[in-house]
Amino acid sequence: MTVQRNVTIWHNPRCSKSRGALALLAERGVDPTVVRYLEDAPTRAELEDVLRRLGTDDPRAITRTGEARYRELGLAGADRDALLDALAANPILIERPIVLLGDRAVVARPPERALELL
């Protein structure tokens, strides 16, 4: 089996879905670059790049709208720019895991969605 080294996963080790996606990739011989996005928050440009790879312009596609911080910041009616700024400043709001390969990405919820990239 060929090991794919150009796969990246935005990972939160405390999240069961994130751990599940990482395990599924490992079972298939994939050794991804693991980005602990809560510790190494993505820039706004990186968020824009992920949205492009997901094939959407809508930051809600990667936003955890059920997070308490989302409500605290009053983001329900926020526009695209405000949401991107909030995601960059509060990485807890970023959906996880996000798996990237080449010019594509998936939000791996459920974790099996990560396999769509392989």
Structural class: alpha+beta
Note poorly predicted spans. none
Beta-strand segment tally: 4
In CATH terms, the superfamily is Glutaredoxin
Sheet with most strands: 4 strands, mixed
> How many H/I helical runs?
4
Describe the protein's architecture and organization.
This protein has 118 residues and is an alpha+beta fold. It has one domain (7-117): 3-Layer(aba) Sandwich (Glutaredoxin). It has a 4-stranded mixed beta sheet, covered by helices on one side. The longest helix has 12 residues, at 16-27. The protein has helices at 16-27, 44-54, 68-72, 80-89; strands spanning 7-10, 33-35, 98-101, 104-107. The mean pLDDT is 95.
Give me the secondary-structure topology.
Layout: E1 7-10, H1 16-27, E2 33-35, H2 44-54, H3 68-72, H4 80-89, E3 98-101, E4 104-107
Parallel strand pairs: 1-2
Antiparallel strand pairs: 1-3, 3-4
Short description:
With 118 residues, the chain is of the alpha+beta class. The chain has helices at 16-27, 44-54, 68-72, 80-89, and strands at residues 7-10, 33-35, 98-101, 104-107. Strand 3 (98-101) and strand 4 form a beta hairpin.
Which key features would you list for this structure?
32% helix, 4 strands, globular, single chain, 4 helices, 118 residues, alpha+beta, 4-stranded mixed beta sheet, Glutaredoxin
